[in-house]
Amino acid sequence: MGAKDWMLFYASDDVGKVLRSSPQIDREATAAFVQRLHPSHDIRPIADGSLDCANPPDGEVYAAVHPGLSIICTADAALDDPRGLDERFHLEAAGRTLYSHAMHSVIDFFAYAIWEPNGTLRRAFSLSPDSGVIADVGTPLPFEEKYLAGDPEFLAYLGEDDDYPFRFHPLSLAEAALRALFGFNYEGEWHDDDPDLEEIVLAGYAVTPR
After folding, report:
1. pLDDT tens digits for 17-32?
2. Counting CB atoms within 10 angstroms of each CB, which of 53, 144, 151, 159 has the fewest?
3. What whole-number distance in Å separates Cα of residue 173 and Cα of residue 143?
4. pLDDT at 188
5. CA 154 to CA 102: how far, in whole Å?
6. All structural domains of the chain with their residue ranges
7. What is the mean pLDDT of the chain?
8. Within 13 Å of residue 65, how many CA atoms lie on the same side as its CB?
9. Average pLDDT estimate for 53-75
10. 204 contact partners, CB below 8 Å, separation of at least 6
């Protein structure tokens, strides 16, 4: 497993349905979206990216506004505990469901959170082998159950003497979250109707504090 991402989805529609429709980016709305989220920064357009690469470095963001869905990939979402997401990102939700998803393959880290349209935190969960379980708030969603109970395939791979701190691999859970919440995976199982992530254009911006 080698995937990394840090991204936020603002949804008033089913995320997977929107992505499968091959939506066209609204560039004017996207620029305004990025500016609202960075009111104290200078914003400069850079080359486009895509949802296939969702782990921009500090100082860059990739974003898109579509009917029913806005996306931003930003290092501001690369948080050990997603509950620490800056308030400006919550204010932007404005009655939409907000999803945070972050994973880093080098350290087996995964974090996700869901905030309801009224701003209430529905679920937050994050973990890594070095830090253990960092956040565990709300009722686990169905896609989590197999892993929290112990993934038989992963346990068989570990063997009896392995001291890995979890009974599942965090990145396997991260990919299960992508599938359940957004209708795609970066690695693993592919479905015939999955969106082509390289075709989901994200406008790139350099964001520099004033």
Report:
1. 999 999 999 999 999 9
2. 159
3. 8
4. 77
5. 21
6. 4-138+192-209
7. 95
8. 13
9. 97
10. 45, 46, 47, 48, 49, 56, 60, 61, 62
DSSP for 164-181?
Answer: -SSSS-HHHHHHHHHHHH
Q: From 110, 108, 9, select the one nearest 62 (Cα to Cα).
A: 9
| 0.90 exceeded by pTM | yes
Could you tell me the two tokens for 148? 């929290």
> What are the two backbone dihedrals, phi and then psi, of residue 16, each rounded to the nearest 5 degrees?
-60, -40
HSE, side-chain direction, 13 A CA sphere, residue 205 = 26
Residue with tokens 């995320």: 15
Residue 149 burial (C-beta neighbours within 10 Å; 0-12, 13-18, 19+): exposed
Measured CA to CA, the distance from residue 3 to residue 193 in angstroms comes to: 21
Exposed, middle or buried by CB within 10 Å (0-12, 13-18, 19+), for 75? Answer: middle
